[in-house]
Amino acid sequence: MTHIRFADPTPDALPLHLVTKEAFKVWVSLLDAPLRAWVEASGFKANAGQVVLFPGPDGAVQGAVGGLGGEVDRKRGRFHAARVRAALPAGTWALANELPAELLEECALAWCLAGYSFGRYKDAKPPEAALVAPEGIDRARIERIAAAEARTRDLINTPANDMGPAELEAAARALAEEHGATITVTTGDALLDGNFPLIHTVGRAATRAPRLIDLRWGDTGPAITLVGKGVCFDTGGLNLKPAASMALMKKDMGGAANVIGLAHMIMDAGTPCRLRVLIPAVENAVAGDAFRPGDILPSRKGLTVEINNTDAEGRLVLADALALADEEKPDLIISMATLTGAARVAVGPDLAPFYATDDGDAAALSAAADRVRDPVWRMPFWDPYETMIEPGIADLDNAPKGGFAGSITAALFLRRFVTDTPRYMHFDVFGWSPSAEPARPKGGVGQGIRAIEDALPGLLDI
Questions:
Q1: Which residue intervals define the domain Cytosol aminopeptidase in the entry (predicted)?
Q2: Is residue 79 located within the same domain as residue 159?
């Protein structure tokens, strides 16, 4: 159960003050004397997440104040209003003081995101304090973003026994039905007939058939194609992962989960564009017909790929999907994938590294990420490393030896399959919060999609 929506206005809503350290002195000076004495006696200093309840004459709660911390707190973390929500008792609350526009939007979003819980297998208890939508925010947009994030988290959090290629297809079909989109799916050996050899090869060893999911929505406007890696579980194939590395591989379809969440935002907002979503959905398993290290495989693009590690399978399934996307020459292609451990080593779990062929697109995305508190970091398509993915015996190497620049070489590999679309962006996300943070419980998480959603009107000139 989740509580990710705002409450409707009610005269019984309790006043809630959200105060930064910078505004604390002015705010407390405006209180009447008894309440000011109560706040001071309670030791409230507007520390991030600090809450003081206001008692009425009968001892019942008649209001509260929550701290948002100071500038350093907001630089080192975000969504501190979520901590306030978690500390408040059940009831309906209404914001009682003014906040700067960007901080107000962050607090409103934090409140909704903090209402998420994953309760499919165990009763979950999200915070029950509800907030009336504050004046000055776009309620529908905030709730849309929270719903998209919840959708993404649910998909990632669901274990592979209940989230295989067929279940990922079902999630895409539900999304299509909700928004009146069309969807086609190419499954099993039909992938060979459709010229998707890499998707078929990676998924053929699994008992659950591989497939390519193709969703379309919108008839007019600029064209954008989203491509999401849907490896529902990754054993590593014949280059079998050790147990510790396999433990979180239910999240290896995090790229697909992210583009499904992003697609929901785009369609629910009625964005004037032609949207296409491509998801290669597979399980990388071990069996007698699994692909092998040393194999040289054909691709939809016509490029041959030498397999030096079967655990570098995500770029293979994305390659065929990207080649298909590129054939239409849309205005923009965006791929999202939980692709490399190298990206985690480089920037950690919180930042979403991305690559862009267009400097203007990169700048617009970075600016949007700052606005909506969805951190991203641009990485380079570093051309001098192209030779690292050229093995000599084939056109491309799926896993260059040596381990240097692993995220960059993976991105360069993918770029080889986008040759006719000038504007391409690739996200190498983690898709997981390793520990609980404000508005982000431990588990699956969306990364980069709020930044893309905010930047999209400028990116597509709509």
A1: 309-316
A2: no
